[in-house]
């Protein structure tokens, strides 16, 4: 019975992890994750992603430059989740600056 409980917990924890850092182009990456059944805040998931993205860039001796992020809080029938898009840049790169991040609209209206 104890082995079954440990196996179930390990499976649940593995299912909540994401694919890790995914390249999107030159020096540009994305990381996403879904929280566990005890994570209610998409912001908490996003904070973990920023820590992981920063560590990833530091491992390359580069600086984190956030591009875009999003998160969803836990609701009925879904887990909290988040996504962060970022670049890893040299400290001397002219594109490395204070991030100016804008939220995307929840609804887009197409006018024809």
Distance between the termini: 62 Å
Number of helices: 2
Unreliable runs, pLDDT <50, ≥5 residues?
4-15
CATH topology of the domain at 14-89: Dna Ligase, domain 1
Per CATH, the superfamily of the domain at 14-89 is Amyloidogenic glycoprotein, copper-binding domain
Instruction: Please state the CA-atom Rg, rounded to the nearest Å.
Output: 17 Å
In order across it, which strands form the biggest sheet? Answer: 1-2-4-3
Task: Tell me the major beta sheet.
Answer: 4 strands, antiparallel
Structural class: alpha+beta
Average pLDDT figure: 80
CATH architecture of the domain at 14-89: 2-Layer Sandwich
Compressed to H and E, one letter per element, the order equals HEEHEE
Helicity, as a percent range: 25-40%
CATH top-level class of the domain at 14-89:
Alpha Beta
Instruction: Estimate what percentage of residues fall within beta strands.
Output: 25-35%
Categorize the overall geometry: globular
Total E-strand runs: 4
């Amino acid at each position: 019975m104890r082995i079954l409980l440990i196996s179930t917990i390990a499976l649940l924890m593995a299912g909540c992890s994401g694919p890790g850092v995914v390249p999107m182009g030159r020096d540009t990456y994305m990381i996403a994750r879904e929280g566990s059944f005890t994570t209610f805040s998409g912001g908490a998931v996003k904070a973990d992603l920023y820590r992981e993205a920063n560590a990833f860039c530091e491992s390359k001796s580069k600086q984190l430059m956030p591009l875009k992020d999003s998160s969803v809080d836990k609701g009925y029938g879904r887990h909290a989740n988040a996504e962060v898009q970022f670049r890893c840049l040299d400290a001397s790169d002219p594109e490395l600056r204070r991030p100016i991040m804008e939220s995307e609209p929840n609804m887009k209206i197409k006018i024809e």
